[in-house]
Every structure is written in C-alpha cells, then in structure tokens.
Design a protein that fits this description.
By secondary structure, this protein is α/β, with parallel strands linked by helices. It folds into two domains: 222 residues, Alpha-beta prism (UDP-n-acetylglucosamine1-carboxyvinyl-transferase, Chain), CATH 3.65.10.10; 201 residues, UDP-n-acetylglucosamine1-carboxyvinyl-transferase, Chain, CATH 3.65.10.10. Helices cover 28% and strands 28% of the residues. The strands form six sheets. A four-stranded mixed β-sheet has the order 22-23-1-24. A four-stranded mixed β-sheet has the order 2-15-17-16. A hairpin with a 3-residue loop joins β8 and β9. The chain starts with 9 loop residues before the first strand and ends with a strand. Bound molecules: shikimate-3-phosphate. Its EC number is 2.5.1.19. Catalyzes the transfer of the enolpyruvyl moiety of phosphoenolpyruvate (PEP) to the 5-hydroxyl of shikimate-3-phosphate (S3P) to produce enolpyruvyl shikimate-3-phosphate and inorganic phosphate. This is 3-phosphoshikimate 1-carboxyvinyltransferase. Pathway: Metabolic intermediate biosynthesis; chorismate biosynthesis; chorismate from D-erythrose 4-phosphate and phosphoenolpyruvate: step 6/7.
C-alpha cells in the first residue's frame, strides 16, 4: 500500500542519453526544521523553496495543530506565525506524521518540555520504527511516553511540567535524536548538552543559531559537543531552503549510468554532513563536477554536472563517511551494480531502521535483477556487472520507502529489461516531481497500470 492511497505500480526502461537541467525540490531536512523553528519563534518567519512533499506537509499540519499559523502563499513561498518557545497549545487531534521519522521525532522533542500532551501516529512504515531512541532522552527532561510494545507509534507524549536540563550522549549516529534533544532543550532553564561520537547533519544547530539561540559547538575527546542555552526568544527569519542533495542523487546517478548523458543539477546544498555520496561517486570514477560553488543562507551550494561515466569501479566506502550519505546507500548500490568490481559498505546498521530495512529491500530487489549482493547486520557488498550487463526484468517492492522506489526506477534506466516497482506512491513524500523531472531529462519512467 502506498502511504496515502492505493499502490501506484511504476516501470522504467533503458533510454537514450539523459540531458538538460534537473531542478530538484527543496531540502527535506531543512524544510521540516524551518516549519518547526518558525512555529517556536515570536512573529512571522517566511520560507522560500520549501519542499512541498507529503512528509513536510504533514509537519506543516502538525505545527498548525500546536497553534502556529502556517500559510502556503503559492509559488513555494510559505509563512509561519510562531507561538514562541514554550507556547505550543495542546492539539485536540492525533498528530499524523505520515511516513516521516524526521517529522515525528523532531516534533516530539519540540513539545516534550511544554506542559501539554500529544498523541502521534503514522503510516505502517512509521508505526513500525523505533521511537525509544527519542523517548529515552526525553524522559530525562521529565517527559513521559506511552506507546505500543517496543516503543512504537501510536504513542502519547506527556510533556514535562518542570523540565530540567539534560546532558546526553547520543548512542546512535542520528541527527533526528540529536535534534529532538536540542528542540526539547529550548524550553528548559539552563544549558542542555548533546554529545555525538560522529558528526551527523547539523542543520538544527545552524538554524537555531540563525534564529538567535545561544548555541556552542566544540570538538571534545568524547565527540562533537553541542551546548544550548534554554528559553531564548527565537527571532523570526527569512529562510531560503537549498535544493536537496538526497534528491539530486537520483538524476546524478541516472546520468552516470545512462550512456551519453550530461545533466546539470543546479543549486544543491553541499553541507559536508550531507555530501558524502558525491565524494564516493568521484572515488568510483564518476564524471561529476561542482560548478559555481557558493554560499547561500549559511549553507554551501553548487551546481552539479554529471556525465555518463564509462569506467566506474567498485570501492570500499569509508565507514566514517556513513552519516554524511546515510540516505544515499540505496542509490549508491544501483551505481555499484553498473561498476566493475565490488563495492563494500560497512558501518551502516542504521539503514535497517529507516522507512524500510534498506539493506534488505535493496539486496532482495538487486538480486532479483541479477546482481550479486551479500549482507550482514551492519554491512553489505554489491558486485557490479559493468555497463550493459545489468539484467533487470524484476518487480521490486518499495516497502513504503520513497528512496527504495526511486533507486529501483534508476536501476531500470540502463538495464537490459525494464524494472518495475510495486508502489511508487511513497515517492511523493520527498520528491513529488520525480517522474516528470526524470521524463523531461529523457528517461522512460511511468506508471505501469496500462
Ligand atoms: C534526518 C536524519 C537521518 C536521515 C533522515 C533525515 C534529519 O535520520 O536518514 O532522512 O533530517 O534529521 P537519522 O537521524 O535516523 O539518522
């Protein structure tokens, strides 16, 4: 089943060169944070380039339910009239976060230190994902969580009446957990400290500083330590959301594997905590260049140019790079299928608790399409067949996971036989224009009903 409706079977087949410009949508991580911090500021925040994917629309609806005024002005301009730190109202309805782990975990953090309760739910994928990683640290602030067995949604969070500051070592490399603790720390007197052993995406820290919070980041022996001073008055901002590197990954990777391609993907956020895929692709021999490198709204940005790359080779991806490309392993495994030799991906246990078990979902679908894949709890390897030799021909399950659906559709773009996915519906959570954007470049991707 699709997250918000009937399944949408899709198919992609080998095509001629991809060419042109791919204007991918706004960054999903930054879009969620713009709405949530806008809702916690005093006054009106304006947002340009917001991703209008279902995940972000669900967060917009949630912010309304907590009392913020969120307005879509059309043309991707949005505004949020915030209620101030600690000003969230108690929602009178269940907060449906759809497919979005980022949405639910960040919002739980943002409300956990206000004297209100809220009940959260989602689709079958989200309701199966672990929430204890967030509710454990929120309990240290004094919040209570009552959910299903194993810490699953639906779940009610009872916010703390008298929150106390927390010092927390994040036990898994997760920006969602880090961000939930920081957002909870906003409404707490005193300093909340979060320590992460490995740096994860830092959009929350950057944006908190932009909204005027006192936040300090230092490298210590224990890791990256973030100290937030609670109860600031957040000052509304004008935010320009950079385009999403995780969405750019799809046209970029398609261009690398489809013979003769030359695609420009402009205005992509290249925050170092996000850009690991592009480094990896270049190490594999990809013809991928950064043009017009610049800074926009506090984030590094460049235009990416990707061309067909005839000599891709498998590599060992450094595990230390995993956090900076965690959402890109599925599409990397597709490029690896077209490379010569083995690509080794280690230190990627977190892939098993995303919108789906991404190692299992990709391994199963790639094998069905004739690719050799081996996997263990926190690693997997893909043995590439080289250009022209990927068989294809199978129907793959997307498991309610947008990135799995898009990855298999990219696989089909250079395979000997078409590749189908059982449900492309979840693509709308992060990249609603994927089908038209890829078709405009010359891809043969479509709904498979007919
Ligand atoms: C995200 C963090 C990552 C990532 C997700 C977006 C965020 O999840 O996979 O797509 O915006 O903070 P984890 O925090 O679980 O690693």
């Amino acid at each position: 089943m699709s997250s918000h409706g009937d399944p949408i079977p899709m198919i992609s087949r080998a095509c001629g060169p991809l060419s042109g410009t791919a204007d991918v949508p706004g960054d999903k991580s930054i879009s969620h944070r713009s709405l949530i911090l806008g809702a916690l500021a005093v006054g009106e925040t304006t947002i340009e380039g917001l991703l209008e994917g279902q995940d972000v629309l669900d967060t917009a609806a949630a912010m309304r339910a907590f009392g913020a005024e969120v307005t879509d002005h059309g043309g991707k301009s949005w505004s949020v009239r915030g209620v101030g730190v600690g000003g969230f109202a108690e929602p009178d309805q269940v907060i449906d976060c759809g497919n979005s782990g980022t949405g639910v975990r960040l919002i739980m953090g943002a409300m956990a230190t206000a004297p209100i309760s809220a009940t959260f739910s989602g689709d079958a994928s989200l309701n199966g994902r672990p929430m204890a990683r967030v509710t454990d640290p929120l309990a240290l602030f004094g919040a209570q969580a009552v959910g299903r067995a194993g810490g699953r949604l639906p779940m009610t969070i009872v916010g703390s009446q008298m929150p106390v500051p927390v010092r927390y070592h994040v036990p898994v490399p997760s920006a969602q957990v880090k961000s939930a603790v920081l957002l909870a720390g906003l409404n707490v007197p005193g300093k909340t400290v979060v320590i992460e052993a490995e740096a994860t995406r830092d959009h929350t820290e950057r944006m908190l500083a932009g909204f005027g919070a006192e936040i300090a980041v230092e490298d210590t022996e224990e890791g990256r330590q973030i100290t937030l001073t609670g109860q600031p008055e957040l000052v509304p901002q004008h935010i320009v959301v950079p385009r999403d590197p995780s969405s750019a990954a799809f046209p970029v990777c398609a261009a690398l594997i489809v013979p003769g391609s030359d695609v420009l993907v402009p205005g992509i956020g290249l925050n170092p905590t996000r850009a690991g895929l592009f480094t990896t692709l270049r190490e594999m021999g990809a013809d991928l260049t950064y043009e017009n490198t610049r800074e926009e709204g506090g984030e590094p940005v460049a235009d990416l140019r990707a061309r067909f790359s005839p000599d891709l080779k498998g590599i060992e991806v450094p595990p230390a790079r995993a956090a900076s490309m965690i959402d890109e392993y599925p599409v990397l495994s597709v490029v690896a299928s077209y490379a010569q030799g083995q690509t080794v991906m280690r230190g990627v246990r977190e892939l098993r608790v995303k919108e789906s078990d991404r190692i299992d979902a990709m391994a199963t679908g790639l094998r069905a399409n004739g690719i050799k894949v081996e996997d263990g709890e926190d690693w997997w390897t893909v043995t590439g067949r080289g250009h022209g030799n990927v068989q294809g021909g199978a129907t793959c399950q997307s498991h309610l996971d947008h990135r799995i659906a898009m990855s298999f559709l990219i696989l089909g773009m250079a395979a000997q036989s078409p590749v189908r996915v059982d449900d492309g519906g979840p693509i709308a959570t992060s990249f609603p224009i994927f089908e038209t954007l890829m078709a405009d470049l010359g891809a043969q991707v479509s709904r498979a009903n007919g």
